[in-house]
Each structure stands twice: as structure tokens, then as C-alpha cells.
Specification:
With 135 residues, the protein is α+β, with helices and mostly antiparallel strands. It has one helix spanning 2-54; strands spanning 65-70, 73-91, 96-117, 120-133. It has 1 helix and 4 strands.
Length: 135
């Protein structure tokens, strides 16, 4: 009877040890996957900063779509105009208390940048404010 209890205790101990090993291996695999993903996101974000500086300031005025390759990332940048307003100038000296229409157009646009590298793809967007002379 005593040797049977020892065998059961050993089997339960082996089962617990097996569960600890399986849990540890699963955790390490998940940690490596997350770490690889974080490196990809970090690389993509650094590429985004460089692409944002690289694309011309007038992407929203001349070209609405740009594409190319930067640091092994293929990128496409698209500009979508969201709002456009004329500026107003106060003209109290000529008796206009409401203001009159100014000579500048203020334009709010959204730039969407898509980065692709191998099987990894990430989209970023940011707001862009530009002005242009009307007259």
C-alpha cells in the first residue's frame, strides 16, 4: 500500500512539473512573438517619422498621392482635404465691425501613410494645416 502511494505521489509530481514546463514554454513563445511585433512597430514608426519629413510640404496642394520606398518600407501617402475656410481680417478703421474676407485660405487636410514591409502593413494618419494666398 505504501509503495502504491509513493507511485501516485511521483505521478502527480510529474504531472505538476509537466504543467509548469508547458506553461513556461507557452509564455516564452508568446513573449518572443510580442517582442518581434514591438520591433516591427518601432521600425515602422521610425520609418513613418522619416517618410513624414521626406514627403514634400505641399503634398496636399500639388500632389494628392505619393509613393516610394524608404528604409526597406514601401510607402503610399494620400492627402484628403477635410475643411477649407477663408481667413477674416478685422477692419474697424473703415467701419466694418464684423470683419471682411481676408486674402488667405486655411486648409485642414488628413494625410494617410501606409507602410508595407514583407507581410507587415501599418497605416498611420495625421492632420496637416496649410495656407495659400487667394489673390
Amino acid at each position: 500500500m505504501k509503495s502504491g502511494m509513493i507511485i501516485i505521489e511521483v505521478l502527480i509530481s510529474l504531472l505538476i512539473l509537466f504543467m509548469v514546463v508547458v506553461t513556461s514554454v507557452t509564455t516564452i513563445k508568446h513573449l518572443n512573438t510580442v517582442q518581434t511585433q514591438q520591433v516591427q512597430y518601432g521600425d515602422a514608426y521610425m520609418a513613418l517619422i522619416n517618410v513624414k519629413n521626406y514627403i514634400s510640404a505641399d503634398i496636399c496642394q500639388r500632389k494628392r498621392l505619393m509613393s516610394g520606398t524608404f528604409n526597406d518600407f514601401r510607402y503610399t501617402a494620400r492627402c484628403i482635404q477635410e475643411d477649407e475656410k477663408r481667413t477674416y481680417v478685422k477692419a474697424f478703421e473703415i467701419g466694418d465691425s464684423q470683419g471682411n474676407i481676408g486674402k488667405t485660405m486655411a486648409i485642414l487636410s488628413k494625410v494617410i501613410v501606409t507602410l508595407k514591409k514583407n507581410n507587415f502593413q501599418k497605416k498611420y494618419s495625421y492632420q496637416k494645416f496649410t495656407t495659400k494666398k487667394v489673390f
